[in-house]
Amino acid sequence: MKKSPIFITICLAGAGLGSTFANADTLEVISSGGFYSSMEKLIPIFEKQTGHTVHLSSGSSMGESPTAIPNRLNRGERFDIVVLAAPELSKLAEKGYVDPNSQSALVNSSIGMAVPKGAPKPDISSAAKFEKVLLNAKHIGYSASASGTHLEKDVFPSFPPVEYKVISSKAEKVVGDRVAKRIAEGQFDIGFQQISEIKPFTGKYGQVELVGPIPAPYQKVTVFAAGIGKNSEHAKVAKELIQFVKSPQATQIIEEQGLEQVKQ
């Protein structure tokens, strides 16, 4: 479980978003990896404007990992806001963990393909070319969360039986870690994850390169949504943070992470 170092409370004049520093609260936020980097960058701005403190941790939207969000909540972990794939959030609301009326779509997220830095970037501009890349790859990594579940249950099985067997024999689900991190460590020659989860490992000092979004009909856009804990003691402040994340002030940061903000 990754813990953010963002635990600061900055006391400045002129509180924003309807809160006063005298009544500052501490929020516990759990975010799926698809929105984690965006939230990590947005939290300091929210803290500076409101005086509230936000503790941020990450977990996958689903899967067997002990750090997967549903598994953490099943163990009784306290939270004020949870951000994960919208269908999984609805399940948490049905179980009584999340206030069903608080569910709010934040972003649209696409699945991307990545390769080690310096490696040739395969052409995946069409379905036929993408299929060829999968068949020719030596070792394929995919996530244990929403994007990987789609690949495992919908994409790989769509191939003819012989080709499906070939792809499955060299595809590995990554549990409890980022696929891009494993690519950077040399474990895979190609890997798949939400583009927003690949982005932090790219750039000048990164060891991974984003090839691009996978093509139709294999692409699946995931909506990541936020919900407030049914037993949260800071529901009002939690709502303020969600409203801030959905505001125009957050748009640029969100788009820089490869996500599309859901318009209010």
Automatic annotation (TrEMBL):
Residues 1-24 form the signal peptide. Keywords: Signal. It comes from the Bacteria. GO terms for molecular function: molybdate ion binding. One of its GO terms (biological process) is molybdate ion transport. The keyword Signal applies. The keyword Signal applies. This is Oligopeptide ABC transporter, oligopeptide-binding protein. It comes from Acinetobacter baumannii MRSN 3527.
